[in-house]
Protein: Purple acid phosphatase
Organism: Zea mays
Amino acid sequence: MTPSVHADEYVRPPQRPLALMAHDKPASHPQQVHISAVGAHHIRITWITDDRSAPSVVDYGTSPGQYDASETGYQATYQFLSYTSGAIHHVTIGPLEPSTTYYYRCGSAGDEFSFRAPPATLPIDFVVIGDVGQTEWAASTLSQIGAADHDMMLLPGDLSYADRQQVLWDSWGRLVQPLASARPWMVTEGNHEKETLRELGTVRRFVAYNARWRMPHEESGSRSNLYYSFDASGGAVHVVMLGSYADLEEGWSEQHAWLRRDLAAVDRRRTPWLLVLMHVPWYNTNRAHQGEAEAMRRDMESLLYEARVDVVFACHTHAYERFARVYDKKANSQGPMYITIGDAGNNKAEKFMSGHELAHLSLFREPSFGYGRLRIIDNRRAVWTWHRNNDKDAQVSDEVWLESLATSP
């Protein structure tokens, strides 16, 4: 198929800086509320209070304002140069009934929130975004996502673009709270989460990320919050979140060994869908970030191919690109489909390379903002759509049907 570079049909106005999202409520009131899935029947709720003595407790129930259950967790703070965070509270609640709406209140103060627990069976709707940031374009992408229902958010890195300015983590947490408090957000780190800190002869990285966005890595046997896996829809979907920068802390060998064990434990008769997400794309025809993940690709690609991974999502390159099924830089009907989705709104990487060695495998590429949606319908079929952000609305501009490699003849 001839590769196609799609021109942006919308003349986008110049970017204006997004005003910081201020917190104008009492110090004991929760802010930056977000949730993540922990196992099949539990949800971790995380929030921050300026009052470091506020309780780490969540009251919840299935009717507004009526809470028949309560759980207590823990809190922590972190320091980054002269910045000291508020109290970061983590509370895990459950067991929960699938596809059920729960109403909850954090710390016995402030607003009531609600979320819908993920479904226990197919179908399931994932929204996939990357490289979010705090521009007005990012805000409009998030607004468009909020206008359409989904079950879970997958975000493979570059969340806030705080880049060592810790107050920007707080602002970003308030920006995403309307979505992140209502559906589980499952994230992994990008390069903008590193925030390298050198003090007294020691080097620390991912300090804010690991403190604020705690993912269920222990449950999947991972020793690092930078990579983990989880099941969705009662085990019909297995999602692997890899760490493109985990080598900075733990070495390729440990993540490689963990990935080998994790994939070997997946029974494809029970789990027809296998998804992988990471920050840096292995396949990329944009001028931006060429070749940055080649070592990781050589180290891990055979594991994904042998496991018959269905789709691999990445971001880092601020554009959208969808490849054919690929293995070892060649078209292969048993390889994963590779999708780059780094276009949530931070900025655009506009230059694709028509003469790139992989250009003939790139089926759709466009330097526009937007988000993706993967709807897994049943054990065999799924549909992927990419929604271009036209500022005032979202337009489906790419669509492809997928067949599970585990059930395909």
Notes: The CA atoms of residues 157 and 208 lie 14 Å apart. The mean pLDDT is 94.
